[in-house]
Each structure stands twice: as structure tokens, then as C-alpha cells.
Write a structure and sequence with these properties.
- By secondary structure, the chain is mainly alpha-helical.
- The chain is built from 4 helices and no strands.
């Protein structure tokens, strides 16, 4: 298989986050980037046209719940009382 070497520039914040992600997943930084690229190719990550959950993450964090718990609570409120 032919391979290509790419050079990328990361700011300090990006590099720190990449290092943390790699360490948390017990992989090298290079492998973490390869995994991200594979997920992008598979369509599991979108660029530009995806859903931005940053606002929901911020509210969930302030409330001490997960994003999914926040979404579930909103859906429950919109659905009305359940039997």
C-alpha cells in the first residue's frame, strides 16, 4: 500500500488536546489522527455541515448532566406526561 506523509500545524491547544486524546486511548498521536481520518472517510464525522452541539454541551455541563440526559429531558417535556 502506498503511503503519503503529511505535515500539519497545530496550535498549543490543539496539540494538548490531541496528546490527551491519544493518551486516554492508549495510542500514539499519529494513530489518533489516522483514526480521525478513517472516521471522516466512513462518514462518522462531518466537516462544516454537521450538527454543532457546543451550546448543548455548555448547558449540560452547567447543569451537571450529559448531553444525552439534557436531550432526553427536553423530549420528555415536549412529549407531555407519560403513562
Amino acid at each position: 500500500m502506498k503511503t503519503t506523509v503529511l505535515g500539519i500545524r497545530l496550535n498549543d491547544y490543539q496539540r494538548d488536546k490531541l496528546q490527551t486524546i491519544a493518551e486516554d486511548n492508549r495510542v500514539s498521536e499519529v494513530e489518533a489522527v489516522r483514526i480521525l481520518i478513517d472516521k471522516l472517510i466512513e462518514g462518522r464525522i462531518t466537516i462544516g455541515n454537521g450538527v454543532d452541539l457546543s451550546g448543548l454541551r455548555m448547558v449540560a455541563s452547567k447543569k451537571g448532566v450529559t448531553v444525552q440526559q439534557l436531550i432526553d429531558a427536553v423530549v420528555e417535556q415536549l412529549s407531555g406526561p407519560t403513562e
